Amino acid sequence: MKQKASKIRIAILLMLQFIAISTSAQTPTITYVEAQIEVDGKFNEDVWNTLNSHSGFYNYAPTDVGLAKNQSSVKMFHNGEYLYVSLTYYDTTSDTQVSSLKRDVPIGISDGFVIILDTQNQEQNAYYFSVNSYSTQIDGIVERTNEGYDFTTSWNTIWKAKAFSNDNLKQYEIAIPLKSLNFDNNNTIFGVQFYVRDIKTNSWTILKNVKRNYSLFDLRFTEKFRVEDLPNSSASRFAITPSLTVNNQNDVVNNTNETTIKPSLDVQYNVTSSLKLDATINPDFSQIDVDQQVTNLTRFSIFFPEQRNFFLENADLFSSLGVEGINPFYSRRIGAENPIQFGLKLSGNVLPETRIGIVNVQTDNENTNASQNYGALVAEQQINKNFTTTGFLINRQETDKLNFKNDYNRVTGININFKSDNNKWIGLANLGKSFNDNLSDDNSFYNAGIWFNKRGFNWNAAIKNVGKNYITDVGFTPRLNNYDAINDVTIREGYTQTTIGTSYEKFYDNSKTLNSIRYLNYSNDNYFDESGDLNQSSHFFNGAVFFKDLSSIYYVYTQEYINLKYGFAPLGNGNALVPDIYNFGIFKVGYNSANNQKFRYQLDAQKGSYYGGSRIAAGAYLNYQLLPFANLQLNYDFNKIDLESLGKKTFHLTRFTGEVFFNNRLNWTTYVQYNTQSDNFNINSRLQWEYKPLSYIYLVASDNYNQDIVRKSWGLAVKINYRFDF
């Protein structure tokens, strides 16, 4: 009996050992090797010959069926200090094509490759590194949004990359410092995805198979790599970046001239390998890109994305606290009216499944604007594979030196996210409440939404309610505030919104002409006032034909029902539409050329009605690439509106962007924008030299005119910064 029990135990142990060995064999590994690499793209070091390669890339676009015709081979290892990656793309030609030599211009219209590293393996956020075939580096952050995933390139770190063209072999070699990555040595699994872009054939190929109905950077589809001998923690790391800006501004209208000298300091510190502290003192954000102007024909404000680096790492913790159009934290509010004195941010993982985000920013007083303190506390907990919950508290409070005054706004809430095992379902529930002095009712917000997605078909539905006193001073809730152009007052009014949407697209994988046809893309938003009466219903219809080269022809039809309760003056001529019921719509047709040509263009034309009158609109986008030397881009839109007795107006919007590349480190960019709606003609020209990795000298000239080309102001600024890494 004992011998039988012993044999059973031995059999069980052998079976468990076999399962462990099988599981280990099936898990790709990033091995530890004590080796150094010269990053030159040539793979001359012996270590590359000892590593397993990962191949079998799948098609993602223009078709997402089967293995790629042009394959790639990837190898990876780390030496405790750097993660080294080599990739070989087996091209059919020695030619190559890029769109830019400027850092952080995505490789969407270039030859190159991308690696995504979800170092926490939580499918919440990840690092993005890519390099084009001219060795231009792009880095950023992939972050979860309520509906999927998106990424920003405003996050930066120092790393090495080199591309080398070996006839038809396109070779890429990169080295990423482990100290730059947020990881936990108790969790040795990294989610990894590789993408190869061949703009000449307009193709994306991908290591882990993903269908095109999912976002290209969907973190739910990463390959799971086990990291061998992951360091206990990344080396203690300081990144200190002092900068100095000299800025001369001349106000021609008021005949004033002012020159300022502004020193600032930015510090990053790894508290642990997965928790980072950012500090900024007297920050200067003058090097960020100019916002692209738009023509706004709605009654509400337009959302512009954050571009300031301090607010961007782990930004998904703060930017996804609400839903589109109702977000309690919009970091661009901070410093919009008053200069920032200092800011602190602690963000990252405190436990493998727990992330926190803490922000505190103090602004100075400016003219009649009192100084303010802005704070945000966010905690995110992954309950299990399917559910994640987030709780938050946001505070804005007036200050007088070190004293807090009784002028405040606070917002708190909780969110629950759901994602199904088969990746087809996403769910979201939000509950929030704001607190202001003397306001204690109608101060809540709730939302419930669901999305279903499979290849060629998706649908979604949501309902949200916003109380009129759900005030978010640091948020973005434009629809709460209704400006009455007749009485020159703003009325705050709550509402309920329902949303439904669906789309159906068929793919023609065996066709020589067609890539796909989007037969239907429909969405409907209904807005009900506090009494439950419908005051707006918006319908959106869209269809498109995509050809094999991914050029497309499409139509869009929008129909609006608006029960206008307050005067609205869209022409800006002092004549306002009176409260009434308005039904109007507009039909748009357009054509987008293939994006793998040196000359690319998009054209559209629109005709329809607008409130009680008519509207004709058209737009053009032209792009000519003289790469690797220059890139020229022109956008033009016009909107001609006739409101009969209220007047006529044609709004012109033009944006020219000219980029000249001297090499990967030195470039000259000029923006020219002409917007008659905002009565502005602006020229912004910037010479940018990256004289050391992430250390820059900027020379920026700006000139502002009204639409009649009469100068309003001009300025000249010089900025230099230097990044120290310890």
Summarize the entry for a quick read.
This protein has 3 helices and 40 strands. By secondary structure, the chain is mainly beta. It has a domain of 202 residues: Immunoglobulin-like (Sandwich), CATH 2.60.40.
Helix and strand arrangement:
Blueprint lengths: L1 H25 L2 E4 L14 H4 L7 E4 L10 E7 L3 E9 L21 E7 L6 E8 L4 E8 L4 E4 L7 E7 L2 E9 L11 E10 L4 E4 L16 E5 L10 E14 L4 E17 L2 E7 L34 H4 L20 E12 L2 E10 L8 E11 L4 E14 L2 E17 L5 E11 L8 E11 L2 E10 L14 E4 L4 E4 L2 E13 L6 E15 L5 E14 L4 E13 L15 E13 L6 E12 L2 E14 L3 E13 L5 E14 L4 E10 L4 E13 L2 E11 L5 E11 L2 E2 L1
Q: How many beta-strand runs?
A: 40
CATH domain fold name of one domain: Immunoglobulin-like
Derived from helix and strand composition plus strand pairing, the structural class reads: mainly beta
Anisotropy-based shape: globular
The assigned CATH architecture of one domain is Sandwich
Overall pLDDT score: 90
CATH top level label of one domain: Mainly Beta
Poorly predicted ranges: 4-25
Radius of gyration: 27 Å
Task: Compute the number of helices.
Answer: 3
Query: What is the CA–CA distance across the termini?
Result: 65 Å
In percent, how helical is the residue content?
Answer: under 10%
Strand residue content: over 45%
Main sheet specs: 24 strands, antiparallel, barrel
Organism: Marivirga sericea
Protein name: DUF5916 domain-containing protein
Pfam families: DUF5916
Keywords: Signal
